[in-house]
Design brief:
The complex is a heterodimer. Chain A is mainly alpha-helical. Chain A has 2 domains: about 5-30 and about 165-215 and about 230-305, no CATH class; about 35-155, no CATH class. Chain A has 14 helices and 2 strands, in the order ααααααααααββαααα. Chain A has helices at about 5-35, 35-50, 55-60, 65, 80-95, 105-110, 115-130, 135-175, 180-185, 190-205, 240-245, 250-260, 270-290, 290-305; strands spanning about 215, 225-230. In chain A, helix 8 runs antiparallel to helix 13. The two termini of chain A are about 35 Å apart. By secondary structure, chain B is an alpha+beta fold. In chain B, the strands form 3 sheets. Chain B has a 5-stranded mixed sheet with strand order 6-1-11-10-17. In chain B, strands 2-3-4-7-5 form a 5-stranded mixed β-barrel. Chain B has helices at about 1-10, 25-30, 85-95, 165-170, 245-250, 270-280, and strands at about 15-20, 35-45, 55-60, 70-75, 100-110, 115-120, 135-145, 145, 160, 175-180, 185-190, 195-200, 205-210, 215-220, 230-240, 260-265, 285, 290-300. Chain B folds into 2 domains: about 25-150, OB fold (Dihydrolipoamide Acetyltransferase, E2P) (Beta Barrel); about 160-295, Nucleic acid-binding proteins (OB fold (Dihydrolipoamide Acetyltransferase, E2P)). In chain B, about 15% of the residues lie in helices and about 40% in strands. In chain B, strand 14 and strand 15 form a beta hairpin. The chains are: A mainly alpha, B alpha+beta. Chains A and B meet through helix 1, helix 2, helix 5, helix 8 and strand 1 of A and helix 1, strand 14, strand 15, helix 6 and strand 17 of B.
Amino acid sequence: MNMPVLDVAIGLSFVYLLLSLMCTTVNEMIAGVFKTRARFLDKGVTRLLGGDDDLKKQLYQHPMIRSLAESDTALCPSYIPADKFATALLDIVSGPGKSLADSAALRDGLKLLKNDHVRGALTAILDKSNNDPASVRLHIQQWFDENMDRVSGWYKRNAQVNAAILACVITLLMNADTVHLASLLWTSPTLRSAMIEQAHARSQKARPEALLPLVEYPDKSKPTASRPINVPEQALSQDEKSQLAALTGWQRERQEFAAWRAGQEGSPAPWRLIARHLLGWLLTAIALSIGAPFWFDTLNRFMNIRNAGRAPDERRDKTQPAAGVV
Amino acid sequence: MRATFLMLLCAGALPAETVVLKRAWIDSVKDRATIDASFTIDHAHKHPNAPAADGDMHVAGRAPNEIGLPMVAELMNAAGAPEQPAVQLIHAHEGNGQAFPITGAWRLWFEHPAALQRQFDDVPPAANTNPDHSFEIHPITRYAGQDVTFSLDFVQGFPAHDAKTAFGSYEAMSIALQATDSAVSMDVKKAPYNYAVFRMKLLADPVKLDDGGLAVLADVLDNQGADENVLASNIRMIFVPGTGPWKLISQGAGDGSEFDALGIPRVNLNAIAAFIKAAGGASATRKLPYEMIVVGLHSAQ
């Protein structure tokens, strides 16, 4: 099916997908470097304990929790199971040498606790549990879990904001102007067909959020010769990187800026250079903030329309492993 | 991937367990069916599980030099008469602090995991027969000189999990990997379905592993109903040397052969090793690579 409009749409979806994958990779790198998970968990625990830094410190130093951290110098673990939290908190409040099943010791410990927030919460839990140790423990776990659900919400919102900021940064760094890209694709049938070829190859890969396998066995007779696939460094293939480089970048603007500085007649001033890209950048940034999975699905839909229906041998559900992968 | 990352954030709601293994150790076992160790028994079941429960005998202990993780060893069909000399030796050695040689299929799986286990940290004596553990020698093929390779067989009266349920669960499991130059950290959620019965269709001829065991890639088929639905593709099937299944598969089985099997899942460390070698220090959350230790086998009916 020869439809230039559709081919331009495929080309744009493909570029958005590649740039979104870059955003995802950078976002995860940042989260790893800044230990975002641990920071959010720490924020949640601080709130749970009513901002009591001393109690929080005791909790993190408790053997049940300390052993979960990556190292002794880590702020806190990346996660705390609810049962470990309940055990550590009961142990700290009851005091050394007291049984965790001793409700009287827990009540005595609560009287000595300066933190009104935790004392109030634990007293309410004790009353609600009729002093049954197993029930107390269960209610503390529920209390922790409910708070961690909120932490998950904070983290999600933070990740969305980060994704939007990264979308803007990558759009500007790459000078990915949707209007300019569409114009390039519309006027160059050669570029369009090259993009379609690359887009087809990408659409055959797994959806970005799908659970990808680690390896494949290219030769069925060699079960010890597995080959890694989709290793993290290879978010984009070499061909895709080349294609992206051909469509984006600042080369033309650099030349125009140099010409303007040299006083060449008809050269646009810098503010004009920026102004002509503003709409295109805005469109690209909005598109990237939607995320890679959306553009993967959109690209697939466009490819299916272009191919006038799905090929009979094409797997419908790409989340399932293809032959050869485990 | 972002969704998975978020899921891992709140382990209170979705507990993931972490095992940190040495890469050199992974390389040493990744293409072996079995492992040899000096094993000190802390606790053993007084009596094997009833056949309806699985017929295994759990033995908790330590092998600090070769394994370095909290672990149990399990003897299959342990109520059988031929297994009794080994059972008696296990009870004789229980709690005496002495180490005896043990061989069996190594098994990394997350049925009874702890929050965090680091390989070759100090392993305290087990407090009972089933401490938190992610490593097993299961099944045992030799203990203190007593050969029990014959114990690998179907367990009469044990209704193992059906293929559809078990492989549906295995296929949906994920693993988060993070490697350094010397170690790899694996975060995995608790894994159910210890034993599964299934039909397998070989995709090639079996090949020899480093310890004389055999491995072959196979498709797993639904063992219920008339249709041969493929439930999982390209699963490594592992055969422990000297056992009944190993002998049967050695007798000319090849591409297209079909067998009914009883199997135990374990993490496919061959896949993990290949991946972390390529990925370097990058973290990744992926589908859990697993393989099946085939402990019972007969030609498909």
